[in-house]
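Quick start: read one record
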Amino acid sequence: MEKKELTKAEEQVMQYLWSIRKGFLKDVVDQFPEPKPAYTTVSTVIRVLVKKGFIGYKTYGKSNEYHPLISKKDYFQNHVKSIIDNFFDGSAPAFASFFANEQLKLSELEEIRKLIDEKINQIKSDR
């Protein structure tokens, strides 16, 4: 999928749809905290997401059942890549350095190192 950015409202609707996996307009609106937005507002956001290719639907009579066309993981990976490209000149090491320079706890840094070590070992074993 080409890089497409979501507005905050679109991302919120996607978060709820990823959570419920599929649902009708009412099901999506029900996910919002009080005070819930108007059905027409959520419907408009959903129509935009359909047009952008993030959401698909099946029609049952006059009602549409919506479902994500992109996984949360795939969207997140594209979003993070965009952040790396836009804020770190495409440099993954510069991105990682940002976290190393933040006020992370030792346990958080160790967890990051563990994940990186596991990925390195996986790549080495695949060769």
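Residues 106-126 form the longest helix (21 residues).
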